[in-house]
Every structure is written in C-alpha cells, then in structure tokens.
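Task: encode each sequence below as structure tokens.

Item 1
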Amino acid sequence: MLGHNSKHKDEPEEGKKQEERRKQGGKGAYHGTPSRADELDEPQTVYQTPPKSPAPIPGHDRIGRRSGRHSHHGNPLQHIRAKDGTAGSLGDVRVTQALGGVGVFDPRVVHLTLEDVELGGIAPQSSDTAGYSDVPTSFSPQLNIKCGPLLRYTGLRRDGTFSENCTAREERETWRGSIMIVTADDLSDYSPPPVIRLFVQPASEAEIGEANGDTLAEAAAVSATGERLPAKPAEELPSTKDKARDDLLLGNVTTTRRADDGEKLGKYKEAEATKLHAERGVTFWRFMVEVELGDEQTRIAYRINHGPSIAFWVPARGQTMNIMFHSCNGFSLSVNPDDFCGPDPLWRDVLREHREKPFHVMLGGGDQIYNDAVSKKTDHFKAWLGIKTPFVKSSHEFTPEMAEELEDFYLERYCMWFSQGLFGVANAQIAMVNIWDDHDIIDGFGSYPHHFNRCPVFTGLGAVAFKYYMLFQHQSIVDEKEEHEPSWVLGCAPGPYIAELSRSCFMFLGRKVAFLGLDCRTERMRDLVLSEESYDLVFERLTKEIVAGETKHLIVLLGVPIAYPRLVWLENIMTSRLMDPLKALGRMGYLGGFLNSFDGGVELLDDLDDHWTAKNHKAERNWFIERLQEFAAEKSVRITILGGDVHLAGIGQFYSSPALHVPRENDHRYMPNVISSAIVNTPPPNAMADVLNKRNKVHHLNHETDEDMYPIFDADVDGKPRNNKRLLPRRNYAIICEYSASEASLSKTTQPPVQRSTFSKIKKATFGAKKSNKPDPLSSVTVAGMDGANTSSPKVAADQLGRDALYVVLRMEVNQKDPAGNTKPYRLLVPALKYGRDAADGDVHSEGGGGWI
C-alpha cells in the first residue's frame, strides 16, 4: 500500500455499506503492517501476495460457479523499504519508500470560476505579469521534470438550480481533473513546492480550425528544465527511423500570449502542488484542478513554476465532449519500430485533429505502455523465467533483489514512455482517462493457469505493476477510495493475483453521455473477468448516476472486444493432445517462440484466453450482455462498447433478431462494439484478418439477440474495393462526438439484410440464475448503423436518427512508412435509444444465460 490507510471522517452512508461488503468478502486480504514499520519516519509501501485462506468473494466467486474452487493460496509476503534502502535484519523484502505526503486526501485545489473564465473588456494589469517573458526559458524555482506534465480528467460536478433554461450561473457545472509531474530531486528546488498558475487563454483563428499541412511545425514543447523546443515538420523526418525520443520532434504547446488572455488581465488562480509520492530520487507532484464551464468551450492554459504555458480545452456547459479513443500504444518485443516510423505518426495525426477540432478527453483502452521488456531488461526476474522445472519456478520466493529491479524497471519505463514523442505532448494537453490490460503489467497476466498466476514471483510483479499503473495512469495511490475521488468504482474484494480492489471508473463526458471504464484485469483469472459481486457494485453505481431522459448514451470501455469473431476452434486445437509432440519439441528448444517463457504453454493460448469470446468466459459474457440490455431498457440509454487489444479495426454489434422487426432507434439490444487498435503496435497480416473474417457469422446470444461484425470497410485506404469488409488491419484510433448535420457527408445509410447462419450445437449456459466542411480526399462517405430509417433519402434518414446520436470515426493509417501519419476516416452513426413497450417488443427477456451460440 502507498501511504497510510486513511479513513475519511465524514464517509457517506453508502460508502460505509460498500466498505462493509468488501470487508465481508475480503477481511484482512490486502491490508498489512510491515515489520519494523514503527521504526520508520514516513508512510511505507506494503505489498502482499494473496493470503493463504481469505474469503475473497462472497457467495458466487464467479458467474455460475460456487466459491471454493481456485481459492487464494500462498504465503503472505510483505515488502517494505528501510529509509537507507538496505535490507533490514528481519529479512523482509525491501521494495520502496512510499511517501504519500501531507494533504494527499485533502489537497489544495486550483479553481477557475465563471468570473475568471469570462474575460470581458478588462484592461491588462502589467503588475500581474511583471518579470515574465512571452517565452520563458526555464522553471523558476528550478525544476527538472523527469516525466510530465500529465493531464487527467476525473469528471463533472453540478451545483445549483437545474432546469432546461437556466443560465451558467444558476447551474454551475465544474470540470474536475488533475495535472502531475515527476521531478528529479537532486536537480530541483522544492522551496517552495511547485506552483501551478491556471488561466483562460483564448485561441485565435490561426490557432484552431482548418489545418493546412503539418501544423505541428508551428508549435513547440517544453524540455525537462522549462526550455522551449521547436518541432520539426513531418517532411523533415526520416521514414525508416524511430525518432520519438528526440526532443526536437516534440510539438504543440503555446508559446505566446494574446493581449486578452486571463494571465495578462490578472484573472488567474495559483496553488501549490501536493506531494503524492516520493522514491528513488524522484517526487510525484499532483495539482488538483477545477474549471467552471461557460456557454462555449474554453481553452485553459497552465504554467508550472513560471515556465512555458501549456493549453487544454474544456467543453461548454452541457456539451458532449469531443472524445479520442486509442489502445495498444506500444510495440511488441518482436517488432522493429523503425518499420513503422516509430510510435509518433498517428499521434501526429491526433494532434492535427486536436488543432482542427479540440479533443476534451482521450480514453486509453489498455496497453498504454508495453512493459513486456521486463523479461529482457532485468537480471533476477529474467533468470527466474529461465527456470525449466515448473515446481521450482512456481515455488521460488520473490526476492529483495527481484523486487528492487522490478521497481527500477517500471519507474524508468513509465517516465520514459509517458513523456516521449508526441504521445508525451498529447498527455500534457488532452485529459486522459485510462483502464489497463495485460501489457501494462506483462503479456498475458491473469490468463495463465492458476498455479502459475498465483506463484510468489508473478504476484509480486503484479503488485509492483499495479502501484505504478495507479501513479502514472491515474495520478493516485492505492489508499485512495471513492470518498476521496468519486470517479472510482471499487470492486468487492481483492483480486486473486493482485491483492488490491479492482478499480473501474465512472464519469460523465457531457450531460448526455456517461462513461464506464471497467477494470477487466485486476480480478481476472483464466475463467473469470470480474466477480458477480463487483458487477453488482458497478450496476448499482450506474443506476444511481444515470438520469433517464437526460443521459442519452453510456459508453462502456472493456479493453478486449466483446463482439468479435469466435476462435474457440483454435483454442480447442491449442489445448488438445495433438499439441503434446510440438510442446515437447518446444521444450527441447527446436521451436523457438512456440512456447511462452512463463508457464511453458503454447504462446498464443494466453491471447485466446483473454478474449470474451473464449469458451472459459462464454457464460459470464452472455450474462453481462443481457444485464446491459436490461439496463439500457430500464434507463432508455444507448450503450456503446469500446474495445482494443486485437491490433485491427472493426465494428461488432448486438441487435434484436430481425424476426422481431424492431427499428434500430427503438432497439435496446442494439449495442455496437467499436474496435480500435492499435495506435502504435503492428497490425496483423491481411491473411490473419481474412481468417478472422471467415469466422464471422450471425451468432445468437439468445432467442431475441443476434450478433455479428458490421461491414464498414467497403474500400481500403487507397480506394480499392475490399473483399474483407469487416476487419481492417491498419494502425488506427477513434473519435467520438455528438452528431451534427455538418459532421459528415452521407451517401449510404442502410445496412444490408441480415442473413442467419446455421449452427450445429446449442448449449445452455450454466451461470447464476468539428470537422472542416472542406471535402476530404481520403474520406469514406459510408455511415453505418442506419437501418430502420423510414425514408428513402439518406440525408433525411441521418437527420431523423441524428438527434442526440453519437458520431464515431475510425481513422485508419494510410501508409506505415510515412511519418506524417495521414489517416482515412470510416464513419458510424449510433442513434440514441427511444425505448418503450409500444416501440419494442415487450419485456426485456433473459434466458438466464443466453444459451445459444
């Protein structure tokens, strides 16, 4: 644990009830006091492997299976770090000094009010900016930033009178977030602690709008010491080298001030940072930020210690945010980054789009960082991976040396990756909301056999990865609960291999759009994604927060796609006795890469087990989808699912059986699964995408619900017709915003008729009863998801279904050898749900598990 276990004095009654539920499910499972803790002057980290005999999840530990099987095992293992960093006499494993500074849960907040946002005709106050140059060349007092700034979004708060016609002052809507920097202690001056200045910085027409060429060439970045660094245009970059970590390639921060910006007018706010954490010669500083929203979207600028200003955008009051979604933001170990011009090209395109129509938030769908190199760039952990005897490997202790080098690796890896290249630039100016997946830990974590996942070394690695995930991707420590940060939705009990509560997040992305980022990794096992009790907590939160009639859309981020071609046939082959001879050859070293270095299983099997469509997850998946359908009908809210992981793009969909004749806008079962992956990693070969496409059939979730992949890719990025219209293996990212008639040029709006597939086997489940108006030469004009419109005019059909609809754009890379990162858009319109018993076909019906497949 980081910092002290802290209990808020005024914990809400509902928070107490949830805490009691967690105590009942996991009493003593994840808290612990390190030995010799009373001799240390500061709060300390406590890591624990899952205890020997907890009751981690009450009742059913997974959907449809009684608890007891696969219960947590292993000896409790505590890790602390003495102040001098040396091993203590008691032989405990020393991992890290973890300082959660004073005021972590009662931080100073820098708050811009409506009066600060509205500049009016106030004359500049020279005394307010005396001694400041338009282009500062260093931080004052001195700082050396090892990582950051990182901008995070945590939600909206509404105060005051609520009505359709109320003004911004009558109904206050406040944007909440935080900004974090990681500084090198020996090169920084902390007297006083770092200070942030927050103010409005209006954008000129030259700074936003239609982009011409590589607009990043006009921008710059901030170095570790506060120096302005000019960017290079894409045409000056080599197409065969990964140059993402070259400082001169960073871009797009504001360097000059307009005469009417809030700072020059003396309308700014300042606050000192809160020390979130300190270790290994670095300190994590967090600034809590609040901005009251006005009648128009606003550009907000910030300076840290009088350095160059960086700007981000907040939406107008009530406005649906302009959302960017990405996943798989790194390269696998087998990939040569030079083959793809490094990680920057699509982030360059993101920043171009951000300049033209600013993003208010970016959703990270997992694998924001690839930590697989931990198996290559460590000594002790690498040596452990090389142990051939399974019993020796699984019983090996998590040594102090192993813990030390893992902490070094994750800290340095995060500091490098989250500040490198154009991803680092985006992190400073587009507010992030993240969930994690296996590569944020290590490839396949949670999907290996139970005996391996629960061994001391692997659970120790999971604990270290969780700590740094919380610090860098959520700017939080593991003691932070819902009473401290309301965007958290904590799980019921600690996970089986990471002894912490799962951390899903819920927030609004505008008044009409709610967002749920589901933690599908912390509780994951080979046959479990999330416990039923944790699902209950999630749906309790959704029921409480979502307002029927006002909330039009719920975006659910899962990480791994849930509507995707089945690969059960491949699972069956990989787990059959037919593989035994090949496994034997692999163990003898004749088939390099065929077996993984973790549990000695077939390398591909952990990826298959990760999928919601895997046979081990089938019951849970079907139950989850039916529960989402019930919730959609109850609240009349359209549910859109986001997924990444698979390194290609596509649109999966659930929908009512055509026999029910339910129009799309009235269909509570219609849930598109937008699949966008990867923004950096390599796509699979076309042949692999074609194999997956051949597995695409109309499957039957239950008697009322069908599912398949939507044929959105009629043509490739070069305009040539495609045979595989459902899956496109190119690097990509997605944009989601509220539909307006000016957003798209429409020529095709109807889906082809659905054809039913044949199936040979029926099983019953066994679980518990502003784009520019200028034409885009690369643009696709197809808008999917429009069947059911009662008009022959595509434009009229789109306008009819477009009220409160979401507009989704998949932006596909045109040329992986081009550092400019140009993309072609493919579009999807997701209509709002108008649900009623007279509009649909009656009650929401559940088969108790969706028994068809």
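Item 2
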Amino acid sequence: MVAVSSTVRHGLRFAATPDVMPLHEAAALARMLSRYAPTDDAERVLAERAGEARAGQDFLDAFGITDARLWDPTIAWGQVTPAERVRLPIGKKLNGELVYLDLKESAENGMGPHGSMTGWTGSGKSEHCLALVLGLAAKFPPEMVQILLGDFKGESAFSGLEILPHVVGVVSNLEKSLHKLERLELVLRGELIRRQELLNKYGFPGVRQYEQARAAGKHQGEPIGALILVLDEFTQLLQLRPGMAAVMDEVARLGRSLWIHILNASQRAETGKMAGMIAQQGFAIGLKVRSAGESRAAIGSPRAWEEFKSAPPGSAFLVVDDEHTRYRSFFVSGPFVAPKFKGSQRDRTEGHYLGVSKFTAEVVALPDTVVEEGDAEQDDLDDAVPSADAPKLASVLIDRIRAAGYARPRHKLWLPAFEEIGAMPIDEIVEEFWGRPWSEVSQDAGLVVPYGREDDALRHAQDVVSVKLEDTNLGVAGAPQTGKSTAIRTVMMALAMSHSPRRVQFYGIDCGGGKLQSLAGLPHVCGIAAQGDIEKIRRVVSEVERIVTTRQRRWANWGENGINLMEFRARKFGSAPGEVPEDGHGDVFLIVDNINALRTDTDNDTTLFAIHQRVTKLANESLNFGVHVIISNDQWHTIKCEAQLGAKIELRMAEPTDSKMRNREAAKNVPDSQKGRGLVRDGNHLLVAAPYLGEFAEAANEVAATEATTQVVAERWTQLGFEPAPKLQQLPAEIYYKDPRLPPARRGVLKLGMGEREMSTVGINLRDTPHVYCVGTVDSGRTVFLRTVCEAIKEAYTPEQAQVIQFDPNYSLADSLDDRYRKVYVTTQQEISEAAHAIAKKIEADRRPPSGLTPQQLAQWNPVRPKWFILIDDLHLCTPVGAMQSLLQPLVGAIATSRHLDLHVFVTCKVEGWYSTSQQNKIIGAMDGAGASVLVLDGDKREKIIEDVRPAARIPGRGELYSRKDGGQLIQIALPTGWTRATEDDHR
C-alpha cells in the first residue's frame, strides 16, 4: 500500500509497514495452528439465527408490525370489528398464504368455541401456543380478550407471558403443589358464576348481547370479553386430578354463551375422560405425533403421522369439519432484528441522517431526505445475522403490549399463589385493612385487627382477614414449625399498631422457642416470661389474676349499680367519658405460646400443670372483666379451654381430621413448605402476615426484623405522648419487714412477707390456718421464717395476748424475742422432752373446756387467755437418732385439736428425705389434720411435700406458701428488723 507524497523522491511512500518475523518463528506458529481445522459450525449457527429472525418476520408481517420497537398495539386494538373478534392468523401455508383460526362458535361463522392441539415432544406445540397467545394479545385489547394459561407439566412454556395485560393468570407446576388443582377448579367455577351473575344483573342471555349493549352505551356494566383457556399438557392435569374432567366439561358446555374458549394442548389425544369436552370442540390442530393411531385420534386421519415425519417443527394441520389445512405456525422465540430502511426512513425513525459522500474541497449540498415512498428499497433480511445478545422477538412484543395495556381495566382470575408471594409484611395488610399507613396509628380500633390473607379462589380474591377480640379469646393451632409463634406476634403487632398502650396491654408466657421476646420492647408489653423461668411464669399469671379479682370486687361496688365492661370501655376510652375504677389497664391479653408446655403432668413438675389450670380458669371466667387469653397449641382437642376460644387461627394441622375449619379435604392440601399457611373458617387457604415492616424484610432473620419493627412502633407511640403500660413487678430478692411496700397485716394475720398475687403483704390467717411448717434445705431461709414469725407476733400482739414457746436445738432463736413474750426456751433433748410433757399437761388442765358443760355452754365457751405459739427449729433435731418417736410426742393430741386451745405451732423441717424423716412424723400428721399451711423453700423438686406442692431451686427466703383455702402462691419472706448477712452467718 502506497501513498502520494511531495516530500519524497518520485512522490511515493509506504502508507503502512508490514509485521515481519524470522522464518523459524513462522514455522513454530504454523505448527501451533495446525491442530485447528476449519469448520462450518459458526456459519451453521449464524444461518440458524438468521432463519429464526426471518421466521419471526413472518409473524410481524401477518400482524402488520413494521418495527416492533416502535409498534403501538392500541392502533390494532381500536380497529377490531365484531366479525374479526377472536379471529387471528396462526401460520402460513406452503404458498405463503396466511391461515386463520376463528374461535367464535359456528353460529357466528367461527370454528370454535373450543379446540384441541396435539403434538409430540419436539413438534413445536409449546411454541405454537406461545405464538397464538402473542397473536391474541397483539390483535385484541385486554378488555376484549383475557387469557388463562395452564402449564401442567411445569416446563415454563409460558414464561414471560404473565406480564401481558391480557393474561389473567398462569397456572403451572401443579405436580409439586397439588392444592393448586383444587384452586384451579374453584377459579373456573367462580368465573362461570361471575359471568352468569353479570348477565342476570343486566338481563342478557349471553355475553354477545351484553357486550353489544355495553358498546352502544345501554348499560355501564364492566366489560366481560372472551376468556381463552390455553392449557398445555392438559392430560397431565387429568392424571393428577381426574375430577377436573367434569369441571372442564361444564366449562365447555356453558362457555358457548359465556364466551369462554378452551384450547386443549397435549402430546396425545385424550378421548375417554374428555368425552364431554370433545363434543363441544369445533377444531383440531395436529402437529407431529408418534403413530398413525394418535394422528387419527387427534385430527381424524393419519396425515399428521405420515406427512410430518421429517417436517420441521411447527408443521401442523388445522382441521375443521374434516377439512385439513396444512400450515407452519409462527415462530416468535427467535432473535429480534431491526429492519433496514432507506435514508429518509431512518431519518424519520432514528433522527438526522446524512449519507456517505466523497470528501473534496468543493462545496457539497445537503442531501434531500424527502423522497417518494415508492423509491424505498424493500427491507432485506436475507443477509441479516442478529447479534448474540439480541433480545427475543417475543420479549420485544411483550414489552410493547404491556406498556400499551398496563392501565386498562381487567378482571384477574388467577391471583399468585401464596407460596409464590413469600413472606407478607404486616404493614401491607394493615394499610389495606384500614386504608392508612401503619404510622397513622389509632388509639382504639375496637379490638378488630388484620392478621393475614385468605385465598378465595371462587371469588378470585385474596382479601385481608381479621380477628375480632372484643368479647372473646383467641386460639392458634397448627403442627410444629407451622408458624404459630408468628401468628401470635402478628396479632400482637397489629393490636400495637391500632391501639394505644393505655388501651391494651400484653402479658406473655413464651414456651414457643423464645420468639415472643422479640416484642418485649413494645410499650404495650407489661412482661414476658421465658420458658423455664417458673417464678416469672407464675408471676405473670398471678398479676393477670390480680387484675381480674380486683375488677370483680371494685366493679361490683362502683356507684349505685356497679359498672360492667361495656360501660368501663365507654367511659375510659369511648364516647361517654366518665370516672371508672382505675387500675392502670385497659383490655388485657394473656398470651401463652405453646400452652402444651404447661400441661406437663409428671412427678417432677406439677407446678406447670397448676399454672395451666389457672390459665384455663382465666379463659373461662375473665372475659366479662376485659381480660382475654391468646394461646397456641399443636392440636385443638388437647386445649382444655378450646370451647372458650371464640376466635381461631388454624395453620396446617399434623392430622387433617383435627381441622376445625369445616373443610377437612382442604386441610389435606395445606402445603408444608411455607410457614403461616392454614385455613380460614370457610375452608379457604390462609397466609399469615409476618410481624415486621416491609422495610426490615432484608434483616438477618425474622426475629431481628420484628425487633426492629418493635422499636419503630414504640418510638411512634412515644412521639404521640403515650406512656408505656405498667411493667410487671416481680418479687424482690430481699425485703425487710418494715419496708413501706409491706403494710401491716389485718387483725388476726401474722405478716410473713410479700406475696406474688397482690405484690403486697402476705401472712398467716390464724383463724383459717392454726399451724405452719416450713420445708427447705440448709440456708434456704427456714430460720429466718421463724424469726420473722417472732416479729409478726410482736407486731400483732402484746405480751399479755401472746406467749411464745421455743424449742431451739440450734440456738438460732435465742435473740429473736425479749423475755416478755418468751414463756419457754429450751435447747437440749432432755429439756425439750420435759417441756413437751409439761406443756401437754398444762394444756389439758387449763385450756380444755371444763367437764360437765352443756352443748349450749360449750358453744358459748370463749375464755380470754393469751395465745400460745410453739416454734420448733428444726423438727428433725427433736427426734433422737434411733428413736421411734419425736420428743414432742406428748403434744400430738393438742396440736391435732388446737382450734379451741389458742395453740399455734410453727415448725421448720429439712427437705431431704422428706417422706422418711418428716412426712411420717406424727407432729406433721397432727398439723396436717388441723389444717396447717405449708411454706416450701429451696429443695429437690423430686420431693413431694403436700398435694402438688414441690420444692424448686430458689433463692433464700423465696418459697411457695400453700393453704388449703387459697391454694399456693410464691412469697418472699421478709427479713426481720436488724437482720444482716452477718446475722445470718452467726445463726448457721
């Protein structure tokens, strides 16, 4: 290559310098390249892509689309005439003539209303269906044609079509989700009902008359249009659910007047199960099949077998009234190639265009871009080779159709199945239910809250479902790991978003894996007890019981006629403000996640069973006082208070027969692959919302998202100026006898400490309980108990009213009283034995009624004398080793009949070996016979003390005080005045 130059001799120079290499390097390169042989694979691939592009152009030409990128579908949609309704080209004959499919019924000169398409694997059946759907969407507006697609083999044949405005649903992958089959049946039946109801409402016999009147402006009904069911691999559907044949027969029979069309596409013709539907079919499309017999079953002749053995995919026969029309269907899955234009056309489509011209020093005029249309060259696709990343023609068309019809009205038949939705944040259902953002919280929504969605396939709806808690309890049941804890937290979160912390309060027992704790930050939460924290669990229940008993007492005595729950709510929160018996609470919810954990009735843990009984009682008796119970369990029938659960949320049950939702058949089909799935009372499928906001959906896990939501909700109520609900108080680890929180006991009661029921003074009512024995390990607080009793005696009685007898082998009570109260103090076994005999004689002589009294005199006999209190620390030290009976044996008779002797006995005992060392002791037997109370401190829970009362691992001074009248409650023994750790060490 040379260039002309005036700077070199002869005027020529090299324009480029070629690369050179030595001969040996060239030889080495040649040997390296020798392994590669020339091939025509690249040419073949390019040729195939070019052929696909030309095939796609046939579709564009058939529908008058010049450039798919700029195509406006609304132009074609606006030109459809009644005669052209649901009539469209589906392919070309060998001579290039278009072949049309008319889905109208024969009365309207059509081929329908229904038909079949049969083709073996590789015949092009799925591609034919795809082109057919695109053709329908390209020619007809969404209000005129709706399409329901069914891909029953799960091969994604219709992938991408779901975004078309015409497509009202895509049913696929049913083999892995058999419950969708039932859903499909309901959807189709629901559509029949919907269309018939619209026709009946406006008084028309069929959709044709309805649409004609609507187009003429004679009524304002919604457009119905034609519904076209394109069902790929329909025989697979019948194998999975044979009963669908009857449903499809009904749809086919009624579809004629309702404008419902069915295209049944399968690999082979199904003649037996589909007899009813086949009778309604007006056309058949046959592609390549496996045998002549299958061809006859499909199109009535063997031609699909004989003529398509070596035919390319898409080759087909359209058979109407035994007339066979051969054609090749359109191909729309190939790459899109933009058409070539002349300059003037490119100027109009791409902007300013300048052609190539020779560059010289002369002035060249601008080219004329306005030319006659006849001068345009034909688009040339013969040499078009699309790039590797060129989009598919189908995707380009789908995007254009979607953009044009996105806002057009349409009725959606097949809504996305719940398993396709995934987790549903609570703000989604809250905003839909109340029509406001969640942050616009209300102070009182009437105790009605949303918690999920139901899938009402018959009505083609997925409405938000709610639960009304104004006058009922709530139960949540489901198999393990079905989302029961999630359902409870969703209800709680919905309540917190719609009711102020003054309006509702939560007390929780979390035996469901700890997830309830994620809501502890809500200002509505008073306290949540974790599984294993028995003391706090008892405290939660005791606090709720206290609220109920307080309301029972105070509401009955309020004003002249008392006050009921309705009046309480109206005055405190409603439209009739007024005074109420204030207790710091509104409607109270006791939440027990996994109540079955409280039903443990073993020899080792009867405490939980007692708590379960108390929760059951609250569920039965507390609604009239604004206290509700929300519980979850694995089964309904094992919930003792199930009859009191007026509201129920049912997730998937382990045994469908346990379902309470009126449709046990539907219960069998609740999927186990998604938490929160269940049934509503009508048998529709349910998806419970997640208890977190959508903005936190990407958090590490559900608990983290819920905690973040809890914080945001709490901040919102703080911004609105609401104080949090009163927090749950727990028994202190230590409390002194003179603590202001422990007011003096009423007359006849010895103050012991603080009780969990009222979080106030608890004591021994000597009228109901003449004796008490205290059981525990060393350092559990047994001696402190007796010293506190001494202080209570001094507070309640003067020395003239009470005398104390102390049997103190450990010298632990030596400084507990002054001598004005102390009548007897002995420490050695001999002294104890002698004192016991003397006291017994004194009782018999001075404290028994005189002989000879009449019954009337005995009834009136009430001598004035000081009470005798016998304090024994410890009882086991009063029984000599090897002896058969206690040193206190002489007192047994008096202890057993002490109610009229002004005699009270307070005893401490070791818990170890309770049955052998203490329960068999006649002193304990006599005390039990007289109605003694029991205080059980720290100890091995395997030791059963009395009835269902057992020791537990407890801090010093903490114990369960059990009386036969009031049952048990946890207490903290008050430390006597002046008691310190040093004092405790001195008395060990």
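Check on item 2: The two ends are 116 Å apart (CA to CA). The domain at 749-847+864-986 is CATH 3.40.50.300 (Rossmann fold).
End of task.
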